[in-house]
Amino acid sequence: MCSKTGAIIVAAGKGERMNGIDKIFVPLAGKPLLAWTVETFENCSAIDQIVIVLGGHNIETGRKLAAEYGWKKVTGICTGGEERQQSVSNGLKLLKDCQWVVIHDGARPLVKEALIKIGLAEAKETGAAVAAVPVTDTIKMSSDDSFIIGTPPREKLWAVQTPQVFRFDIIKEAHASADKHATDDAALVEKLGYTVKLYTGSYNNIKITTPVDLSLAEILVKGGT
After folding, report:
1. In terms of CB atoms within 10 Å, which of 1, 99, 183, 204 comes out highest?
2. Is the pLDDT at 145 greater than 60, yes or no?
């Protein structure tokens, strides 16, 4: 059986909370945000090929960036869909002969190689593993009219991140029967009855969704984190 590992970097979002800025190419410590993300996967010995999923208006910019940085593992750049689920599905179609798939948000530029490798090791237990961190705030459940209806125990709650790692046949099956509005690949796999392992992510593995997030990422990068 083929043991190759492919990565899908999903970067087709609209960035609606970035004040009109296309976040995926915004400079982060002098380098496009997407370049930080892709280069971690490019340099990771556990990754054999990379597919980048972009918005249609960014395809040419993405190709130029790949050529400029000489990303040898990037075997495909494709257009995403209106929803995240469609974007991941499009990326899956371009992976060739892979047994494992690592799905990662392009807007999480501070991911480390170690986190990718740990995810792959953990996924071998059940075929699916996702990075997550314990929540630090108390979480409330609310009714439709904003009244508290419950307080789940904090020690049981995790904030899910990416990378999310799956055996190829499992994630392919999950997307074939997916709700097109799904925002989390692990949830699709859970719905099919598969067990998903949580492994400890990093609080520094932030997702850039607002200008404040970008400022924090700058601080973390300059601090060597």
Report:
1. 204
2. yes
